[in-house]
UniProtKB/TrEMBL annotation:
Pathway: Carbohydrate degradation. This is Ribulose-phosphate 3-epimerase. It catalyses: D-ribulose 5-phosphate = D-xylulose 5-phosphate. One of its GO terms (molecular function) is metal ion binding. It comes from Yoonia ponticola.
Length: 227
């Protein structure tokens, strides 16, 4: 992975056909996705349960771009090795998931993965100030994590603050939740470069009719690029 700040669209497979993940990943990549965002939920840190490291491992051969694993689990440290072995390029943990985010980020990097830290809407930018040198990505949640298809919560002030805190450091700002062609320009203007989108990418299409995926991705990218 080389670092660049151009807009990247990361479809979340949470909004895809759960019986067909491999083909869904290949379909959105063929339609222009830059990364694939993989939402891991444990029914404890967030209400829903999705899947774990074994599913990520099975998905890996179907992902040619970047496998961006978003861990919405607590505790997190005991599971990191499994996700690294599954082939994650980026592993993101929540700052709210435990008392030792510093140790968690050290562990992620020591496993050879890029490290991300995620912030819930109620958590201020300052919560990651002392770990910025340990991360490759800060994920700003623009919904409360746990479900796809929720309404966007405006976090543009937090994004702009993080962008200033990051300065020239090679750290991505990723936005997760409610991203569509209406909200993408707001977050891109504030300094985000990775836009996760579930419903707004997968709506209207399917593996056998993937053209809408491409139209949806291009619409989000075009809207973000106008900012
Ligand atoms: C929410 C997940 C998101 C979700 C985004 O807990 O982390 O990645 O899939 O879905 P949309 O784009 O539908 O808000
Ligand atoms: Zn996510």
């Amino acid at each position: 992975m080389t670092f660049d700040r151009s807009i990247k669209i990361a479809p979340s497979i949470l909004a895809s056909d759960f019986a067909n993940f491999g083909a869904e990943c290949a379909a959105v990549e063929a339609q222009g996705a830059d990364w694939i965002h993989v939402d891991v939920m444990d029914g404890h840190f967030v209400p829903a349960i999705t899947f774990g490291a074994q599913t990520c491992k099975a998905l890996r051969p179907h992902i040619k771009t970047v496998m961006d694993v978003h861990l919405m689990i607590s505790p997190v440290d005991t599971y990191l090795e499994g996700f690294a072995e599954a082939g994650a390029d980026i592993i993101t943990a929540h700052v709210e998931a435990g008392p030792h985010i510093h140790r968690t980020l050290q562990n992620i990097r020591s496993l050879g993965c890029k490290a991300g830290v995620a912030l819930n809407p109620g958590t201020p930018a300052e919560a990651v100030a002392d770990v910025l040198d340990m991360v490759d990505l800060v994920c700003v949640m623009t919904v409360n994590p746990g479900f796809g298809g929720q309404k966007f919560i405006d976090m543009t002030a937090k994004i702009a603050k993080l962008r200033a805190m990051i300065g020239d450091r090679p750290i991505h700002i990723e936005i997760d939740g409610g991203v569509d062609p209406t909200t993408a320009p707001l977050v891109a203007a504030a300094g985000a470069d990775v836009l996760v989108a579930g419903s707004a990418v997968f709506r209207g299409g399917s593996v056998s009719n993937p053209t809408p995926y491409g139209e949806n991705i291009r619409a989000i990218r075009a809207a973000a690029s106008q900012s």
